Amino acid sequence: MLPLETVFVWAAIFIYSITFAFYTYALVFVSDWVYNRFVTNKRADTLIKRTYYYNNPWISKVMLQEAEDDQINDPERYSHVWLGNVWTKNDAQVFKGKYEILDFSTPAISELKYERFFYGADWGFARDPTVLI
Questions:
Q1: Which keywords belong to this entry (predicted)?
Q2: Which of 34, 76, 88, 94 gives 131 a disulfide partner, CB atoms 3.0 to 4.6 angstroms apart?
Q3: CA-CA-CA-CA dihedral for 74, 54, 27, 7, to nearest 10
């Protein structure tokens, strides 16, 4: 189902017999309606054209430097802002940018002598989200 503002756009397209529509957007969530309607569910009557900053012949040196800085310092931002991919980092994430994912095995309890495992919770009663560790 299309959002209400989009229904008005489609109505205008049909009223004036326009046979094409252009959508430009920055993909934030994979649930975005444009992404789902035209990219996820590919249609034979649709042309998807992705463009990137490095294809822009008029891009300034300052903008190129910004892109390079993001690529080095914040790869997730670079992926979203400069390459148009889904934004995977969220300001609501408690440990945003401060964690790493590693493989590990948990030893059997009988093997534990001096090690202890800890866990904790922040229930998010303030303006912060709930987190369990």
A1: Membrane, Transmembrane, Transmembrane helix
A2: 94
A3: 160
